[in-house]
Amino acid sequence: MSLLGLDVGTTGAKAVAFDLGGGILGQAYQEYPWLHLGEGKVEMEPEKVWEAVKVVVQAATREAGGRDPVRAIAVSSMGEGVTAVDREGNPLRNSIVSFDSRTEEQVGWWEENMGRERIFGITGMGLHPMYTINKVMWIKKHEPEIYAQASRFLCFEDFAIFKLCGEAMIDYSLAGRTMAFDVVKGCWSREMLEAAGIEERLLAKPVPSGTVAGKIRREVADELGLREDVAIVTGGHDQPCGALGTGVVSGGMAVNSTGTVECVTAAFEKPLLSDSMLRYNFCCYHHANPGMYLTIGFSFTGGSLLRWYRDNLGWEESEEAERTGRDVYEVIISKATAGPVDLFVQPHFTVTANPWFDPHSTGAILGLTLATSKGDIIKAMLEGLGYEMRLIMTLLEECGVGIRELRCIGGGAKSPIWLQLKADLFGREVKTVEVSEATCLGAAILAGVGIGEYANAAEAARELVKVKETYEPRPELAEEYERRFEIYRQIYPTLAPLAHRLRQ
Question: Domain total for the chain?
Answer without folding.
Answer: 1
